[in-house]
Design goal:
By secondary structure, this protein is mainly α. It has 63 helices and no strands. Helix 24 runs parallel beside helix 30 and helix 57 runs antiparallel to helix 58. The radius of gyration is 52 Å and the shape is extended.
Amino acid sequence: MTGSGGGTASAAAGFPIPASLQELESAPYNLLPYPADFDDSDESARAESFGALVRHLEAGNRTLASAGIGLFEEEEGEEEGYEEWNDHERMQALYTLVRKSDSLAPAARGRLVGALCGAVAGLCDALGSAGGAQSPSQAEGSSQAQAAGSGYVVSQPFRDALACHVYLLFTLMFLAESKEKLGKSLGSAPAGGRGKKGAKKGKTADKGEDLVAIRQKCAAAMAHAAATMSACRSRLWKRGVPDEGVVGLPCRIAYQMLESATGGAAGRKASGGDRALEIIAATVDGAPCLLSTVVAALVDLLHTYDHLAPLVAELCTMVDERPSNVLATELLREIGRLDTSTYSDTAAGGKASGIKNVAPFLSELASVRPRVVLSNISLLLPHLDSEPYVLRSAIINSIGSILVRDDQMLLEKPEAKDDDDDGEDISEGAAARPQHGQDAERAVRHPRARGDITSFTRGAALRVLNDLTEKQSLPLDRLMPVTAIAIDRLQDKTVMVRRCAMQLLTTILENNPFMGMLDPEIYRSKVRELEAYLKANVPEEILKARDAALAEAKKNNEAADDEEEGGEEKEDESGDEDGEEEGAESGDEEAKEEGVEDADEEAKEDSEEVAEGDKEKAAEAAEMEKNIEEIEAAALAAAIADAEAKVEANEDLSEAEIAFVAKVRGLRFVSTALSFVEAFEAADDSFRMMLGSSNPSDVTEALRFLVKAKHFGLPCAVSGMKRALALMWSNEQSVQEEVLKAFVEVFVGEPGTQGKELLPENQIAQNFIDLAGAATVSELASIEEALGRLVKKEMIPPDVFSILWTMASQAEGKPRASAMTVLSMAASADPKIVDSAYRLQNLYDAGLGDHVEENRDWATARSAALALQRVRRARVDPSSAKYIILDLIAERLVSVARGDWCNDEDVDDTNAWFASAEQAINAIFAISPSPERVSMEILLGHQAAIFGSDEEPSNDAAHSLRLSRFFFVLGHIALKLLVYTEVLSSSVRRANAAKTVKKQEQSATSGQSKENEDGDAGSKGGSEDEEDDAIEAELGIAAQAEAETERRVAEISENEIVGRGMIGLFTPMLLRVVANAEGTYSSPVLMRSATLALCKCMCISKSFCEKHLSLLFSVLAKAPNDDQDLRANIVIALGDLAFRFPNEVEPYTPKIYACLRDKSTRVRRHTLMVLTHLILNDMVKVKGNVCEIALCLQDQESGIRDMARLLFHELSKRTNSPIYNLLPDIVSQLSQLHLKQEVFREIMLFLLIFIKKDRQNEMLMEKLIQRFPKCTSINQKADLAYCIAQLKVNDKCVKCLNDNFKLYKDALFDEDVLRNFVTVLTKAKKIAKPETKDAVEELENKLNEHAAAGLENVKASKKAARAKKRAAKRVARKKEVEEWEGSEEEEEENEQEEEAEEEEVQDEFEFDGEENRPENQKVGEGASKGRGGRTRSRRGRGVLSS
């Protein structure tokens, strides 16, 4: 009989599995919906009837438990046990209860589940005991005598009873699961009882708990049934061939249970997911015939649900793996057959999501059973070329898991076997490893695994490599390729991939197989040492061969030299003989003079030959050295190969050979380490790019890498950390915190402790000194910011500053200045570090004392002056120790500012003095009570040093370095006086404001106390004060006073400082030096110092600036090409002048823009930086000159290009759309410059990115089309068409193109123009609406028609031009022929006239002999021939010219 449940039962089967529960009401079952005696009159009767049915089942269960398997065995004279136990009445009761299980009371349903599960468990227990221990009834019957035999099979009644109960249990669970799924899909729980909200919620929770308990009980019974049928299939069915309909029932419900196993471990437990896995595993082991069905169902589940990947992977570990894991193998085979050709992320029907759900299964399976995946890796590798990136990523992750686990297994002994292992024989796996390992290695080297088109897969590959490296599973020979891949991926366009690449590099560094210190110099010296040893210990036979090769090379070189020398001697001898012969033949003076001249020429030629010979000898010597090196390298390579061959052959080696082999291995190791370090050093540009990234993730990972690199001693870490300190000024708070954290880990904390444990105080101080000593000015500012934050957080121990003070006092040279610099940085956050009498005394002795003066240590003096600027201004108090020491310090600062210690013969000394003098003047204005008087003293000191005093005037010319120092101090003091004046003005305003506030407080206090006073005098006085304040406020006396203060300050800055003051006395001399009209002053230091001083003076007074701006620009124009410092300083000063006096500088703006074309990269960079600040602050006009900045987008210097891009990015953020307004101007000016096509298009491609609004695209397209008639060449029209092609297209753009078609139709013959308009047309087709399709088609027809017509016109024009040219050539040739014929006739007439004259002469004269006649005739013939020759040559020229 064939059951409709999908299985094939035996011919004698009494209970075939029905297709549905309702089929039990038809033949051969013939059951009724209710039993005949079922009472359905009311609810109580109905419940009682259901209870009676349950009690009937429970009674049958008790009978089964007592009788066991003997209940179903046939004996003589008895009917079948089927009729006695699993009779029609029992089946009817089961059917009715299961069918109406949803309407049963909870208690009745619970009893039903218990009875049904108990019956299944009893049947399974009876089956398990069959064939073993027999019951008493079985022992008495002779028919059971052979029950213990190995071929025992249970009776058909038992199989039918088991099938019936398993099916009804399956149906009960199916109904419960369907109802639960329906409730979830509707978004509501099963209905609870009526009443209040709290009671309803409680009942619902109780019902949910009951459902979980029932589900677990049923799942346990079904798992028991599946396990029993699997273990006892030989007892249950003949020849052990199972009934697929019966044995497949547990799996069918297990699939539904797995569908509900969501929500993690809790959801998995509630839905019976563990029992479901046990059921499927038992079925796969016990019924191999169902394997394909199970695999198909699992693959379908994997496609449908995203939570099943780990569950199915776990299932593969639960099946029997002897001899192989058939379930996992078949699943991998099915996945390998997946058709991914039509895959897309937006695929209909859920195909895309299905593959996304299947892919994680590969990773999960590889993590628990890597050997299984490895043995079937060939099935998966073709998917590395498939479209779904999730599948490619999963395969890469699987390969990583295989390599990690395989490497760990190889570390174990082959005999050992772990319980958690795959259940496979490790020795067999090791034997099969080479073939599968090649597949995995091929997958790792797969192009898509290393450079996939999808960033997710690239990131997955890098993460796998990271995991391999971290778990020490990466082979050493793959270390360098993996490092190269990680460095290359730092250039990836995706943030995720760059982050993974940087993490991989950090892991590689942490797990490198070399020393803990990766300083390349250590390895280079070791390589040289080992190579020298190996060369000195080469085996004798190889040494003899090397010496022979060297001797032969030297012999060949000497032979070549001898041949050359012999050839030169022969040439010299032949030359001498020729000279002797010529001297013997020439006997006159003229010949002797010529001989002298020839000798001079020969001497000159000889000297040139000697020089050439020297060059040739040098080249030969270099070639000889190269040959020797090659021979020695070949000998060394041969010695190494010979040693390795002996080792591989297991030959007995001597002690010398063993040492040689050890050195060879050491050389190979050290060379690999050096290549490893050099790979990181070569990636310095990539690290710089990561630090400069706009993404905080890139910066964070780069900083973490640099911290590790610093701990390993990589040189790139030092420069990288210095660049990273500039990120202290980042706008991202997270970046600032990460930089500070990296600063602490590198310079303050113990490595690997993340700053929780600090280094010793001496080490911290030394780190700070080393950092400050090698830093630039910009880096010092960043270091100061980081150090200041650490001081404020009290993260630096106080003993560190004590050590720094000691080093500043006792150290020599640069460490002394660096220590003082670090102290000044720390004092910016905590002035107490230097602001005390004791510390000031130390500063005086260490930074400005005799040691500094004797050694002219300007760096230390500068650092001391910086520290003094953190000290508060001292009040005049002769009894105060602080005032006294500050007075002494001021005297030393005056000496520094006057340059009393400078050496006038050393330019470098003066250049070093400039920085210290600047900070000394700053310190004077910070600590001196009257800095203006001290400044006057400094200027008078310079005047006396240059011009002498009134008593001893100097008549000598002023030294250029002294003048340079004087002008520098003059300009800086003038600028500081302006700042000091503004500071005093601010102090006056603050004092007036405080006075006003105090008055208001006093008036408020007097108003409150007035109520408590009895006398009238106080109230009268208070009222008078209030009246005075009211009158002053009404008259604006306070505002007038404040305005008067501002006027006085303006007067001082405008007229006093550089006008009527002392500085004004020296400005004429300053102007004369700057103008240098007669070229008297040639010192570049003097010109730079004077120009800088002039710029500072111009920043003070508007009138002075306006008067001398032309002079400044003339100096800029006439500056020498090699003096880029002067031009750069002027450009920076012009930026300051434009900020202070924009109206005065505005007429000269084009000249500032012109500096963007300067030959010096430094000048261009400074100019662009100044213009960027001015433009972004709206201080200069950009329109009209923006073309110059646009050209900077293609500058040779990358920094200039980046700055120009930054400027346009910032402009694009403004609301008034400046780039849109500037684009027509840019296009116009760039077109006039006749740039290369690629340069113009790259600039416009970048700028057109910022045009995003539709209205702007429409207007710009119209403006560009309007420019077509104004173009003078087809290249300009092609560039305009390119710009139009880069714009976004909409309906209005199509209309504009149609309306203005006549403006550009004449240019469509050009292929480039047509191609760009076709691009526009393609864009229009993609976004065309139904109402605009006609316009698009019209435009397409116009383009095609006029392109063809224009091309024909061009061809016709070219053809006409060629015809015209040929006609002109024919006319010219005809004219030349006519001229030639006319000239030939004239020559013939002339010849006839000459012949007639000769005849007349012959008649007049008589000749003695006839010999003269032939001679005369010959002469005539020669003349005639000569004329004829000239005629032919003239004709030839005519033909050639035609």
